[in-house]
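User: My collaborator sent over this chain with a note saying "see what the structure looks like." That's all I know about it. Can you take a look?
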Amino acid sequence: MNSVPVVRVALPTPLRRLFDYRADSPSLTGAAVEPGMRIRVPFGRRRLIGVVMETASGSELPDERLKSVLEVLDRRPIFDPATLGLLGWAADYYHHPVGEVLATAMPKALRLGAAADSTEERWLLTPEGREAWARGEPRRAPRQRQVLAAIAQPDPPVAGGAIPAGAPAPGLSAADLDARLESWREAARALSERGWLAAVETTAAGGAESGVGAVAVSPGPEPNEEQRAAIERVCQSLGGFGGFVLHGVTGSGKTEVYLRIVERALRLERNALVLVPEIGLTPQLVGRFRQRFSTPMAVLHSALTDHERLLAWRDAFSGRARVVLGTRSAVFAPVRDLGVIIVDEEHDTSFKQHEGGFRYSARDLAVVRARRAGVPVVLGSATPALETLQNVTTGRYARMVLTRRAAEAAPPRLSLIDLRSSAARAGISTPAVQAIERHLLAGGQVLVFLNRRGYAPTLLCTACGWIAPCRDCDARLTVHLGAARLRCHHCGADAALPERCPQCGFAVKAVGQGTERIEETLAALFPATPCIRLDRDVVRRRGDMEEAMRRMAAGEARILVGTQMVTKGHDFPNVTLVVVLNADQGFFSTDFRAPERLAQTIVQVAGRAGRGERAGEVLIQTEFPDHPLLLSLLAEGYEGFARAALAERSQASWPPFSRLAAVRDSAKTAEAALAFLAEARKAAEDLRAGRGSGSSGNHASGRAIRLLGPAPAAMGKRAGRYHAQLLLESTDRAGLHRFLDAWLPALESLPSARRVRWALDVDPIDIF
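Assistant: Without extra context I'll predict from the sequence alone. Here is the result:
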């Protein structure tokens, strides 16, 4: 072993190891190299940016094989020891290369070498922009005019995007624009394209101290007894780890509990991390936090541009942002002086990354991060995941219950509509139509829920029976009538909507219902009543979601048709009726989690009704009114359903009473996909039996591993490739991970592994 100073570096490669580099290069004189810093190193013919994981006084490699660090990119580590430890733990737990895990935790700009130091984004009027402002432009774009008005200052304009040294910063910062105008960025970009605005970066004023001592701007509503008890229970743990489940019925004021807990943390000069499952929830929650607190916030989600994401990350890294709010990947945000972590709608499957490379659960990592940081974590939901409820039963989490709705609103009344005995028009039954009419006449608003976008799921030939297929998937193309297109919701294939059958030339018709068709039917039934639709087809740009929420809140729309998008945390105080269409689609899935998801969806969407002063009503259309799941929900609510479902899971030894891992692959042929998994199973069987390399010490634990498959996916062909999976199940979590540690090297060495794309998914949430 040599004795030169060495750093062990995680590089963004699929190799499951660290790489040693010399840290005594003359070019690094005076530059400290510490764990958590980014460095640039030679890697073959490339130069890569990696993160230092360890420093050492020597390496097992001989001197002549050690290459030197080329450049240190950071003045101080961008990952503190706690976060670096969390990422290392995640790489081990999910059995993923640590370099790719660290790359996931960084914005793209940092991965490419951008500076980590905090800067401030400012928007300036160009000389052309000032002239346009003086002329009263733009006359036909009021939002752009508002942005120009906000930025117009007496300071001289700056040409070329440069700010003279020592000069006061002109224009307005992005934070100031956030405070003055909602959804201003689209208008600013349009003005920038016209040459009237310029965006520049300057060193941010202030730093970690700028937000310290921030307190609530407004007191908010007075919490009730249940809310106060929950707030105090969590706040007593500030300064130490505690796992808390906030199980509150829809409309019970969980957000107010979050706000009070964060307020207490801020007063103690600690910061907060808040996770939400969907981008659509982010603006609403950000608005609530900004109304309450004067402190700067950082918002992180996938809809941001690379530059916007870097700026938000820098605000968190510098400590300027006291509250960091975001979706899944925000669990890795560099929150300084972390005081509390909150995971809203913790049951939501969006918290699990189940495609691509690093497949992690942000909810589970939030709990691990809180434990390592010694801070409380709050998991909030009206329908907690069964795994979460089991953790309550075993004492790992403390459960806090909110049973009363805000303002003492009564829970909605649920009832079933038997489609076997009720006539329906385009999927809407006569009793549902009558109920909609009754609630509209009473001045209420109506929410119609169908978790299927598009006009119809099938295009059928009435003569030869041809059904429009997707050429690249084992799926049918969905009819989108407004766009006159056929689209695949799995691979994105798109084709023109034919007027006649391509096989026999006879007429074709759309069969089934999607949200677009339901909207059309309701417009025909209630022509004088404004109706809007909320799904991924209409929410395409920033501000679309907020505009729909505004129209509902203002009463401009009386009927809202929506998909799963409307079930997550949105508040519609004037909605008095919810109609759930096609509630049966989750009854016959091959996934053992399907009943849980269906129950969560029904309870969540039902909770949109009656949140204001008027009583709410929920109608659930079904062809199976005697189904145990529906009867359980009606009689005992979600809690009763969860008890029965956990008992079934226990008898079947499914999670949370066992642990799963899935090896999934795809190939150009079904045979190739199954062949790799068959070899993978053979390698697993050899390991279980004590045969083959790496079997030492794993023979006993391997006996507890149950192998299921290989089997084709429920949709065998998707996006032109054939998919299959091999499932591993064990009641011994530690034993399963030891087995995976020994098994994965064998998989990587299989010749067939090079002919497929494969990935390991630990704790999968989707079972084919």
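A starting point for your reply to your collaborator: The longest helix spans residues 628-652.
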